[in-house]
């Protein structure tokens, strides 16, 4: 079994959409989103979502002041070598994407 952990951090002061270069030496069978942390000033209410072309959909839901151990698994089975886009979006009445919050993710890629 091969495992590679990737840490992603972004400050929304730089905008709600960002990219990350990820290159793996193996073709992973699975992506696990291990942990998500989001923090601003703890005055935001509601929820935001983070989408990515890495898993072709929503990666996680987040809220101000939250740290979540997710262990959400997504099948991959394709090479991961390139620049991937991540985009935060508001859920009605949710996180203000004009805020200065920071998000962090721990991703784990596994070849079984």
Question: Mind explaining what this structure looks like?
Answer:
The structure is a single chain. The chain has strands spanning 2-11, 17-23, 30-39, 48-52, 57-62, 66-75, 81-90, 102-111. With 112 residues, it is mainly β. The chain has one domain (2-111): Jelly Rolls. The strands form two sheets. It has a four-stranded antiparallel sheet with strand order 1-8-3-6, with no helix packed on it. Strands 2-7-4-5 form a four-stranded antiparallel sheet, with no helix packed on it. A hairpin with a 4-residue loop joins strand 4 (48-52) and strand 5 (57-62). The mean pLDDT is 88.
Radius of gyration from the CA trace?
A: 14 Å
Number of domains: 1
Uncertain regions: pLDDT < 50 for 5+ in a row?
A: none
CATH architecture field: Sandwich
Can you count the beta strands?
8
Structural class: mainly beta
Helix and strand pattern: EEEEEEEE
Mean pLDDT: 88
Strand order of the largest sheet: 1-8-3-6
CATH class annotation: Mainly Beta
Looking at CATH, the homologous superfamily is: Penton protein, domain 1
Total of helices: 0
Biggest pleated-sheet summary: 4 strands, antiparallel
- Taken as a percent bin, the fraction of beta residues is over 45%
The general outline is elongated
């Amino acid at each position: 079994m091969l495992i590679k952990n990737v840490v992603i951090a972004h400050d929304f002061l730089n905008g709600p959409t960002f990219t990350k270069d990820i290159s793996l030496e193996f073709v992973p069978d699975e992506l696990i989103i291990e942990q998500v942390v989001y923090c601003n000033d703890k005055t935001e209410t509601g929820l935001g979502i983070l989408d990515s072309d890495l898993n072709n959909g929503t990666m996680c839901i987040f809220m101000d002041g939250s740290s979540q151990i997710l262990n959400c698994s997504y099948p991959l089975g394709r090479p991961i070598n390139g620049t991937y886009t991540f985009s935060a979006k508001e859920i009605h009445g949710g996180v203000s994407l004009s805020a200065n919050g920071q998000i962090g993710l721990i991703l784990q890629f596994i070849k079984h």
